[in-house]
Design a protein that fits this description.
Shape: rod-shaped
Structural class: alpha+beta
Number of helices: 3
Strand content: 25-35%
Distance between the termini: 91 Å
Number of strands: 13
Length: 204
């Protein structure tokens, strides 16, 4: 039993002597800001580690010289040759990349309703004809998410899913168009009650 115990300790001692602990710090080369979660690999023995929030890492290599592979998203990868055990300061250079042109297109009225990526309420001619012909308050109030407050002729207020509720006596933050003609003022105040319901064929 003593023989096997001595042999086991002797083997561990040889293994410890043949490995080298490498430590270092990884940071942005231009700003000197430490980079965390940087991928560090010892190429020879495929040992893997990551840098911490201070950019510090440590990794074990079997022998020197050794090669470390440094990779981090958005930065140029590096391979570093290690010939002696020392603290490494590694600055990574950010890569130059170009974003492709982004085009934002709003939905168009002539699209099918199921193809428009937005919630839309639609009032058909039948819906409009079921109201009195002096205003469209009751028709609008039957639409989901829309509420028309009816007061005097100059104090009506329209809110859509809460938008416009900060205004007390007028419709604001909501734009309206009549055959593509803006009804809203420069202050984004809209007076919908001025529209004669008899002129309307449909409302979206």
């Amino acid at each position: 039993m003593k023989y096997w115990g001595i042999f086991f300790l002797f083997t561990l001692n040889i293994w410890a002597q043949n490995t080298t602990l490498i430590q270092g710090k990884i940071f942005d080369q231009s700003s000197q800001i430490p980079l965390d979660m940087v991928y560090v690999v010892a190429v020879e023995n495929q040992d893997i580690t990551f840098s911490n929030e201070q950019g510090i890492f440590q990794i074990t290599v079997e022998k020197l010289p050794a090669t470390l592979s440094i990779q981090y998203l958005g930065y140029l990868p590096q391979k570093i040759q290690i010939t002696q055990s020392q603290f490494l300061n590694i600055g990574l250079q950010a890569t130059d990349f170009h974003i492709e042109e982004i085009v934002l297109t709003s939905y168009k009225g002539e699209q099918k309703f199921l193809e428009i990526p937005a919630p839309i309420s639609f009032l058909s001619p039948k819906d409009l004809s079921n109201n009195n012909h002096t205003n469209i308050v009751s028709a609008l109030n039957r639409s989901t998410g829309i509420f028309m407050h009816s007061g005097a002729l100059n104090t009506n207020r329209l809110t859509i899913r809460g938008i416009g509720s900060r205004s007390l006596f007028s419709t604001t933050k909501i734009r309206a168009y009549f055959n593509d003609i803006p009804l809203s003022s420069g202050e984004v105040e809209t007076t919908i009650e001025d529209i004669d319901p008899a002129l309307l064929e449909r409302v979206e």
